[in-house]
Every structure is written in C-alpha cells, then in structure tokens.
C-alpha cells in the first residue's frame, strides 16, 4: 500500500506480534504500540521531506519502521543521522503531549505515554536496523568503509539481542514479559542480518550517487588508498569511505607505484568485468 506517495510494506512479524498480544490479552497495549509506531514513522518522513531526502519505501516492524532513503544519505551521513533521530524524538514529543492532554482533559493516557517513551529509547539502542544503529553506522562511515560500519552496527545488534535474552532468562517467572523479549530479540537479529546482506548493494548505489554529486558541486574531499596489484577490486571497494572521493595507487610486489586510477575508473571497470579480478588487470 501507499501513504502520501511512499510505498509502505508491513513485515509478517508485525502481524505475528499483533496476534501474540491479542492472544495474551494485551489489546490496549497493541493499540498504543501501533499508535506510537505511526507517530515514529511520521517523524522520520516529515524530517526527510524537510531535508529533501526522498523516502523510497517504509517497512513496518513491531519496534518501528525501516525507511529506505534516497542514496544521498550514503555520501551525507549527517542527513541520515537527522532522519534517524526524528523518529525517537517524535515519540518523546508525543509522550509529553499525551501527558499534557491527560492533565487538561483528565483522560488516562498512561500506557500511551509509557509506550511512546519505550519506543523512543528502544530505537535509540546502537544496533541495526534501529535508529541508534543507523546513527552509529553513519558516524562510523566517516572513518571506515560503509560495509565495515554496517558490520559493526550489526554486531552491536547481536549484543543487544543477547542482553534481551538474558533479561528473558532472568525474569523466567514473568511469562508475559518473556514472550515480548523473546520475540523482539529474535526479530532484531533477523532484521540486522537483512541489513548486512544489503550492504553491498548500498555501496554500489553510493558510488553512482557520489559521481552525480561530484558533477553538481565540482569538488569533493579526496582519500588515497595504496593497494597491491594482486588485490581484488571487491576488496578495494570495501575500503571506500562514503564522504570521500578515492584515488587508488596500485603497487607492485616491491611496493613501487605502477599506476593511479580514480574510483570512477575502478567502478566502470568493475561493472564491465566484475568485482573479483585483481586490480592489476586494469593496467593491462
């Protein structure tokens, strides 16, 4: 389905989570959670539009949504940070607004307020695909390759899931709490692995977008990489930093410079001949 021109997909786990809450008698909690998810995603979309970042697709999960953004965020990680933080901040604002309405109209909104705060703080945890993980990935991508930044944030997701499983075992007598922790811990690992698999595609899309931006601005910071001629093109691309334009210095076995190429030349060669040939083949 579409919402304001944006394709919205609901992950099957969301339906499973809804059935789980219904089966355990958490009807009011279910309504509150989906209300907070809606507010959360509206926050992402609103800020993205303000920053002129196109939202291509939104996948709805029980813990929030995953927005597929225009590839400009891979050369402007600061934009992804702002869009990522917009969701949790919207939930926090909603919590304060709910408290205000509760006081003025004398309406019980305690669970809605608690759900909003829980949604905000859970999404700020530093693991993909949570918003905190996107912030971590974006900050790291200034210093290391995009794929390495994603791998680090995914590893953080595994650690968070282990903590959640520990809480599950610690509260073994609280069955209702255990069900939620178990469901979310498994779902977090599944969603994190999905992000990891997409990293190669995101990196290639970044290269296309960076070339376009370079044409528009006419300048970009340069990062030099020295590689042996036997190194594969794929491994060279893995080391690229999104916010930089790269010049690759190709060395022989005695570490003498043989040739220099730009990342545009490297990418064009990779498209034509593949990613797994030695970079020295470009010289030939």
From TrEMBL:
Q: Which domain of life is it from?
A: Bacteria
Q: Which cofactors does this protein require?
A: Zn(2+)
Q: Where is the Peptidase M50 domain?
A: 30-102
Chief location: membrane
Q: What is its EC number?
A: 3.4.24.-
Tell me what topology the record assigns in the membrane: Multi-pass membrane protein
Instruction: Give the record's GO biological process terms.
Output: proteolysis
What GO cellular-component annotations does this UniProt entry give?
Answer: membrane
Family (UniProt)? Belongs to the peptidase M50B family.
Q: What is this protein called?
A: Zn-dependent protease
Source organism of this protein record: Thermoanaerobacter kivui
Lineage of the organism: Bacteria, Bacillati, Bacillota, Clostridia, Thermoanaerobacterales
């Amino acid at each position: 389905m579409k919402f304001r021109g944006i394709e919205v997909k609901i992950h099957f786990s969301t339906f499973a989570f809804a059935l789980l809450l219904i089966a355990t008698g958490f009807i009011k909690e279910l309504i509150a959670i989906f209300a907070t998810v809606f507010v959360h995603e509206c926050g992402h979309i609103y800020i993205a539009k303000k920053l002129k970042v196109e939202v291509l697709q939104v996948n709805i999960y029980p813990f929030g949504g995953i927005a597929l953004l225009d590839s400009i965020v891979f050369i402007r990680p600061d934009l992804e940070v702002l869009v990522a933080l917009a969701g949790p901040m919207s939930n926090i604002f909603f919590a304060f607004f709910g408290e205000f309405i509760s006081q003025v109209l004398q309406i019980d909104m305690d669970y809605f307020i608690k759900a909003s705060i829980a949604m905000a703080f859970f999404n700020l945890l530093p693991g993909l695909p949570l918003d905190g993980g996107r912030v971590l990935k974006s900050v790291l991508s200034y210093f290391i390759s995009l794929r390495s930044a994603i791998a680090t944030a995914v590893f953080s997701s595994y650690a968070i899931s282990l903590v959640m499983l520990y809480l599950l075992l610690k509260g073994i007598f609280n069955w209702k709490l255990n069900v939620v922790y178990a469901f979310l811990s498994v779902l977090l690992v599944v969603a994190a692995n999905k992000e990891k698999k997409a990293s190669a595609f995101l990196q290639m899309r970044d290269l296309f977008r960076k070339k376009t931006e370079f044409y528009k601005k006419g300048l970009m910071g340069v990062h030099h990489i020295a590689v042996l001629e036997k190194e594969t093109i794929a491994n060279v691309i893995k080391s690229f930093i999104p916010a930089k334009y790269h010049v690759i210095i190709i060395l022989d076995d005695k570490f003498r410079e043989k040739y220099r190429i730009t990342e545009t030349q490297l990418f064009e060669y990779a498209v034509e001949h593949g990613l797994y040939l030695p970079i020295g083949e470009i010289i030939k």
